[in-house]
Design a protein that fits this description.
The structure holds 2 protein chains of 2 kinds.
Chain A: E1 10-11, E2 14-15, H1 21-38, H2 41-54, E3 61-63, H3 65-71, E4 75-80, H4 90-103, E5 108-113, H5 117-129, E6 132-138, H6 139-144, H7 146-154, E7 158-162, H8 169-182, E8 187-189, H9 200-208, H10 210-223, E9 229-233, H11 238-244, E10 254-262, H12 273-276, E11 278-282, E12 285-289, H13 314-321, E13 326-331, H14 332-346, H15 352-364, E14 373-378, H16 386-392
Parallel strand pairs in A: 4-14, 5-6, 5-8, 6-7, 9-10, 9-14, 10-13
Antiparallel strand pairs in A: 1-2, 3-4, 11-12
Helix pairs in contact in A: 2-4, 3-14, 4-5, 4-9, 5-7, 9-11, 10-11, 14-15
Chain B: H1 8-19, E1 23-29, H2 35-47, E2 53-56, H3 67-78, H4 83-95, E3 102-105, H5 108-114, H6 116-125, E4 128-132, H7 142-151, E5 154-155, E6 158-159, H8 167-171, E7 178-181, H9 197-207, E8 212-215, H10 221-228, E9 233-236, H11 238-252, H12 257-269
Parallel strand pairs in B: 1-2, 1-9, 2-3, 3-4, 4-5, 6-7, 7-8, 8-9
Helix pairs in contact in B: 2-4, 2-12, 5-6, 6-7, 11-12
The chains are: A alpha/beta, B alpha/beta.
GO molecular function, one term (chain A): tryptophan synthase activity
Pathway (chain A): Amino-acid biosynthesis; L-tryptophan biosynthesis; L-tryptophan from chorismate: step 5/5
Protein name (chain A): Tryptophan synthase beta chain
Chain lengths: ~400, ~270
């Protein structure tokens, strides 16, 4: 396979750098600093140390025996990113970028957040490294994820509710970029997903590839071979690309990204960028995008704030077009059912985002043979979602 | 700029240079609050002494814009105004007798969705002399530059105080004028500019023979006069859009509409250097 991205940050026809000129030198500086420091063993060691001693890596690859039996088909493993410090895979990237910011001499960091997981991870790392932190969060999401707002404040971050547009993740991203344009000289933007202008999609992938690297080692230890299928939820797509990337050359390993179908891909209320989107430029890169015929970005919908995003990382668009990975939609209801299924079979409350991946496996596992091995990236834990699940089910008896 | 140019913007800058004047370049969000009013405002701006006009295409995610233009975009989008409507508005303004060169200020995605073939085929027939695409840096602009040249339209490059060694590359092969971003940040009025703004503009001047204009945050006659000393053009955007926003209640009432339009004209008149 061709190594992507190229020097322009292109993944095939996707990616690139579509930002105001004011940011260009900051992105070039970021790209150069990242290249310089990632070649420095001391930088890598510092990150590895924190991932191990602070976040608790490696995370287990857990054989979900009861879920496997219940579904009656393929053998299902869960990569337990939910057991990370702060409860999701987002910390992997926040530690990486935080250390990079420190090396670059920046004292202030900003972040965008949807579900709040990336915001919490960034606020955590900022506290750890003694940096000033501002988190941009759609006003709608500050309501859906009130607990995470409070967590960020406890950690000393300033949470800035964003009232423009649909008041969700995409608007938080816009506002973070706008703030960065004004404060580019002393501020580092810790971007939370594998999206945005080059080098972010590449850098976030590289900070998240530890998910796939560990999984590879662990599954070979447990099963003596590679898995047949990897399944992960895709909003912007950072946990999925982190899981997929180390397996890219292994042709026997299938990859499925699961996106949010909201109320259904045939309704206007979904976030199924791959199923329903077309090529477009959004938040700094070319990728699949939910938009109308005039190129206006349309609002996404998902019960999961972390998947409620009209764009997707450019590398995923590339993997879709070269048919290396497949992307499928899962509805709000299917995700909720899967969440309950995992709760009662395994005693694990997954994040609503991760529940989308479980839902797809629940659909296909029964049709797969018992010697098939499927690994699901359980990207985060569901504690943060309990309230919104209660609201959604209107307190109905589960 | 060749001597036989027929591009209306190039001709305007040539004339301004002969007269020793600085261009006043107002920005307007097309369709804010509605298309008919936009046409009326264009007449007012021309009467107030505008030399070149930037027509802002409303966009759902205007990354380079501050709150004032964001709100104007939302208002225009509620009226279903899009790229083609904006081009048609330019043509109508011309048919109404406007002599102003028109620059289309649009984010890249609406252009991509229209399709580059259609877009460039229609620019000339819609009286567009120039393009500003704020999210298309020079690295991504090769094809747009080539097509603009072929269509006889100026793709106006933006340079920022942070551009430093990029300036040479950005201005080489450019046409029309070079747009200097006055300070770090998004569009919107401000009381102070980047500390090195004069040196920055001087360095752009050294790098190009094209006219040099400045914009982002310029909102008062004093500020226009300050920059007129060192620039060939001054762009005023958010301050005018805010004025339009202020008088919307007047514009919407037939009894007070002409008063609203007059207030816009007076505001722009006092900006004239």
């Amino acid at each position: 396979m061709i190594q992507v991205p190229d020097k322009y940050g292109r993944f095939g026809s996707f990616g690139g750098r579509f930002v105001p000129e004011t940011l260009m030198n900051a992105l070039i500086e970021l790209e150069e600093s990242y290249a310089k420091f990632s070649a420095d063993p001391a930088f890598q060691e510092e990150i590895e140390y924190l991932l191990k001693q602070y976040s608790g890596r490696e995370t287990p690859l857990y054989y979900a025996e009861r879920l496997t039996k219940q579904l009656g088909g393929a053998k299902i493993y869960l990569k337990r990113e939910d057991l990370n410090h702060t409860g999701a895979h987002k910390i992997n990237n926040a530690i990486g970028q935080g250390i990079l910011a420190k090396r670059m001499g920046k004292t202030k960091v900003i972040a965008e957040t949807g579900a709040g997981q990336h915001g919490v991870a960034t606020a955590t790392v900022a506290a750890l490294l003694g940096m000033e932190c501002k988190v941009f969060m759609g006003e709608e999401d500050t309501r859906r994820q009130a607990l995470n707002v409070f967590r960020m404040k406890l950690l000393g971050a300033e949470v800035i509710p964003v009232t423009s547009g649909s008041r969700t993740l995409k608007d938080a991203g816009n506002e973070a970029l706008r703030y960065w344009v004004s404060n580019v000289e002393d501020t580092f933007y810790i971007l939370g997903s594998a999206v945005g202008p080059h080098p972010y999609p590449m850098m976030v992938r590289n900070f998240q590839r530890i998910i796939g690297d560990e999984t590879r080692r662990q599954i070979v230890e447990a099963e003596g071979r590679l898995p047949d299928l990897l399944v992960a939820a895709v909003g912007g797509g950072s946990n999925a690309i982190g899981m997929f990337y180390p397996f890219m050359e292994d042709e026997s390993v299938g990859m499925i990204g699961v996106e949010a179908a909201g109320k259904g891909v045939d309704t206007p209320f979904h976030a199924a960028t791959m199923s329903k989107g077309t090529h477009g430029v959004f938040q700094g890169s070319m990728s699949y995008l939910l938009q109308d015929e005039y190129g206006q970005v349309t609002e996404a919908h998902s019960i999961s704030a972390g998947l409620d995003y009209p764009g997707v990382g450019p590398e995923h668009s590339y993997l879709k077009d070269i048919e290396r990975a497949k992307y499928v939609p899962v509805t709000d209801k299917e995700a909720l059912d899967a969440l309950k299924l995992l709760c009662v079979t395994e005693g694990i409350i997954p994040a609503l985002e991760s529940a989308h991946a479980i839902a797809h496996v629940a659909k296909i596992a029964p049709g797969l043979s018992k010697d098939n091995i499927v690994v699901i990236c359980l990207s985060g834990r569901g504690d943060k979602d309990v309230e919104s699940i209660m609201a959604y089910t209107e307190g109905a008896d589960l | 700029m060749t001597t036989e140019t027929t591009n209306r913007m190039d001709l305007a800058f040539r004339k301004l240079k002969e007269e020793g004047r600085t261009a006043l370049i107002p920005f307007l969000t097309v369709g804010d609050p509605d298309l008919e009013t936009t046409l009326d405002i264009i007449s007012e701006l021309e009467a107030a002494g505008a030399d070149v006009l930037e027509l802002g295409v409303p966009y759902s995610d205007p990354l380079a814009d501050g709150p004032v233009i964001q709100r104007a975009s939302s208002r225009a989008l509620r009226g279903k105004v899009h790229l083609r409507t904006c081009m048609e508005t330019a043509l109508k303004a011309r048919q109404n007798g406007s002599k102003l060169p028109f620059i289309l200020f649009t984010y890249y995605n609406p252009v991509l969705q229209m399709g580059l073939d259609t877009f460039f085929a229609e620019l000339d027939t819609h009286e567009i002399s120039g393009l500003i695409i704020p999210d298309l840096p020079v690295e991504e602009s090769e094809e747009m530059r080539r097509r603009s040249r072929e269509a006889g339209v100026n793709l106006i490059p933006l340079v920022a105080p942070t551009s430093s060694e990029r300036i040479e590359r950005i201005v080489s092969g450019a046409s029309g004028f070079v747009y200097c971003v006055s300070s770090l940040g998004v569009t919107g009025e401000r009381s102070s500019f980047h500390s090195g703004v004069d040196d920055f503009i001087a360095s752009v001047r050294r790098a190009t023979d094209l006219p040099v204009a400045v914009g982002f945050g310029i909102s008062t006659g004093e500020q226009v006069a300050r920059f007129a000393q060192i620039c060939d053009g001054v762009v005023v955007g958010s301050a005018i859009v805010r004025k339009v926003e202020e008088v919307i209640p007047l514009l919407e009432n037939p009894a007070t509409r002409s008063d609203g339009l007059l207030q816009i004209r007076e505001f722009v008149s006092q900006l004239r250097p």
